[in-house]
User: Which sequence fits this backbone?
């Protein structure tokens, strides 16, 4: 996607969010951004835990199970799609 198209889409989204905020939902944009960032941090932390903890070769932890990691990778990939 070209940078100009992406900029147009982001401007349109921001304009609609500002409209919602102006209609009596103070702090709407800040809440949406905060929730999104919290969700991303939680997903990344979960993914890192799943990927790296089993990769540490100890008797308590098996070698990484790609069948467990695969759904999380697809979820992360899907959350970054437009």
Assistant:
């Amino acid at each position: 996607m070209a940078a100009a198209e992406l900029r147009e889409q982001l401007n349109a989204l921001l304009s609609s969010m500002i409209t919602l905020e102006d209609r009596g939902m103070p702090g709407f944009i800040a809440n949406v951004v905060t929730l999104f960032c919290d969700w991303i941090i939680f997903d990344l932390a979960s993914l890192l835990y799943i990927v790296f903890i089993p990769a540490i070769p100890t008797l308590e932890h098996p070698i990484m199970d790609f069948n467990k990691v695969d759904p999380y990778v697809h979820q992360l990939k899907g959350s970054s799609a437009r």
Observations:
- Residues 3-79 form one domain.
- The CA atoms of residues 18 and 24 lie 11 Å apart.
